[in-house]
Design a protein that fits this description.
It contains four helices and no strands. By secondary structure, the protein is an all-alpha fold. The longest helix is centred in the middle third of the chain and has 42 residues.
C-alpha cells in the first residue's frame, strides 16, 4: 500500500476512536446530570404538577391544593433519600472497616488511598459525603429497624 492510503486509513481510525471517546464522555455527563436530577424531588413534583394541571384542567384553587400536596410529598421523599444515603454511606464505610481488619499494613495503606479516591469521586460527581472512617453503626446489631 502506498503512504497516502495508509494516512487516510489512520485518519479514519483516529476519527472513529475520537468519536467513541467523545460519545463516552458525553454519555457519562448526561447520566450524571440525570442521576442528580432524579435525586431532587422538586424535579418530579414540578413535572407532576404541570401534567395534572393540564390533563385534569384544574381550577386555580385545585392547582394550589395539588401544589401543596406534591410539595409535601417532595419533602417526605427528601427525608427518605437523606436517611437512605446516610445508611448507604455508613454501610460503605463499615465494609471498608471490615476489609481493613483482614489486610496487612501495606494493603491497608493502598486501601486507604482507594477509599480516599472513592470519597473524592462521590463528592465531585454526586455531591455525596461519606461518614468518617471511624463511624459507628446507626443501629446496634441486636436492634431492629422498622
Amino acid at each position: 500500500m502506498n503512504r497516502r492510503r495508509l494516512l487516510w486509513i489512520a485518519a479514519f481510525v483516529l476519527a472513529f476512536v475520537a468519536g467513541g471517546i467523545a460519545g463516552s464522555v458525553a454519555t457519562q455527563a448526561v447520566l450524571r446530570s440525570a442521576f442528580r436530577k432524579s435525586l431532587q424531588p422538586e424535579t418530579w413534583t414540578a413535572a407532576a404538577e404541570k401534567k395534572l394541571s393540564s390533563r385534569l384542567q384544574l381550577t386555580a384553587p385545585q392547582q394550589q391544593q395539588v401544589h401543596g400536596i406534591l410539595r409535601g410529598m417532595g419533602n417526605e421523599f427528601r427525608q427518605i433519600f437523606c436517611r437512605a444515603l446516610d445508611e448507604s454511606g455508613l454501610t460503605i464505610v463499615q465494609a471498608g472497616q471490615r476489609i481493613d481488619a483482614i489486610l496487612t499494613p501495606e494493603q491497608q495503606r493502598i486501601h486507604a488511598d482507594l477509599k480516599a479516591r472513592l470519597r473524592q469521586r462521590l463528592s465531585r460527581d454526586l455531591h455525596l459525603e461519606l461518614p468518617p472512617d471511624d463511624a459507628k453503626p446507626l443501629v446496634q446489631p441486636n436492634e431492629t429497624r422498622h
